[in-house]
Amino acid sequence: MREPWSDLLECWRSGRTAALATVTSIRGSAPREVGSAMLVRDDGTVVGSVSGGCVEGAVYETALEVISSGRPAREQYGIADEAGIAVGLTCGGEIEIFVEAVSPSTFPDLDRLAELVALERPVAIATVVEHPDDEVVGRRLLIEPDAAPSGSLGSPRRDAAVHDDAEGVLATGRSATLTYGVDGERRGLGMRVLVQVFAPPPRLLIFGAVDHAAALAQVGAFLGYDVTVCDARQVFATPERFPAAARVVVDWPHRYLAAEHEAGRIDARTALAVLTHDPKFDVPLLTVALRLPAIGFIGAMGSRRTHDDRLERLREAGVTDEELTRLSSPVGLDLGGRTPQETAVSIAAELVAAQWGGSGRPLRVLDTPVHGPNLPLDLSVGRSS
Asked: Where in this chain does the record put each XdhC Rossmann domain (predicted)?
């Protein structure tokens, strides 16, 4: 399990109590995303971060109080004053933190959560972070896809509503805070539930065992992707040439991608980077890729001339203009780079921009929040009553 959850599990298995502080909502330019967490052990040591240093001191004091009292707390921090007296975010955003005591008695499903994460199976924890009844605050559900939830939020109606919506949040791969009525009414107010998602890392499939692939594999691994390099040429596709890749596969690219799709290992967080710019590899591969709706990003490297030739060949292979709109080619943002490493940064920059909706323009010419879009304080999944 990733930090600080592995440290929390260690405390839990030893029977100790620790405080877990988690970001439940953000507004404006906040440095961490929903679900970011900081652990404070009962010996006073700390793991993780909720703000990059702006409010950690205040959260630490709250965490010690929560360990002592056993009662959860919810804190909000806005803009710090210029004198530095008020605790807050220097970046100008707002952040809400939920702090709870965690022990085997308060979180009996933590061992099961750790087991599922170790198996790289997607799982989510739904925790009530706000409710008029203090006895409901801190209650949890453990949600696995296509399985009955474990735990309870205190009523069958709450459990059913949150379980259904949490499965949708889990499919996105990102944590979120949902709002309900006090008994799970979908259009009501009064109860807020943090859905923390634990999913396997997103995949980056790099096709073409070239020097650009080695650089992109390194950058992709740094960004947290599970990287695969695939090429049909065994002499080039060797683990020694791509040490940053989790796996190096010798297979025809289109055949490998089709097999991964059939095995259920391709989803909306999967990114493809086609670096071969060789028609005998590119055209069959992209013909398969552009017809798989689950893939989140499809990019292909090459010059303008290569791009035009590729589009003509894909149309001859029966790929429609609508399917071609999913192709980012030539892949990468315009950074002016030349080397494989600079090209890898360019491609990675487009991946990040595509994931978070960035413009790719210099921050100095924009007046939008530095840390991403201006999200509402409460995130909700669109749902009917």
From this structure: 204-351
pLDDT-based confidence at residue 12 (cuts at 50, 70, 90)? very high
Helix (H), strand (E) at residue 352: helix 340-356
CB 230 within 8 A of CB 253: yes
Q: How far apart are CA 324 and CA 351, in angstroms?
A: 18
**Sign of the dihedral defined by the CA atoms of residues 111, 117, 122, 124, in that order:** positive
For residue 330, whether the previous peptide bond is cis, meaning omega lies within 30 degrees of 0, is: yes
Residue 264 CA from chain centroid, whole number: 19
Q: CA–CA separation, 198 vs 119, rounded Å?
A: 11
- Please write the tens of the pLDDT for every residue from 328-343: 999 999 999 889 999 9
Distance (Å, rounded) from C-alpha 239 to C-alpha 75? 48
Cβ contact 147:167 at 8 Å: no
Count CA atoms closer than 13 A to 272's CA, side-chain side.
34
> Given the DSSP bridges, would you call strands 94-102 and 73-77 parallel, antiparallel or unpaired?
antiparallel
Rounded Cα distance between 107 and 15, Å, is 11
Tens-place pLDDT, residues 123-156:
999 999 999 999 999 999 999 987 899 999 999 9
Instruction: Record the tokens describing residue 104, joined without a space.
Output: 């085997």
Quickly list DSSP for 242-269: -TTSSEEEES-HHHHHHHHHHTT---TT
In DSSP notation, 194-240 reads EEEEE-PPPEEEEES-SHHHHHHHHHHHHTT-EEEEEES-TTT--GG
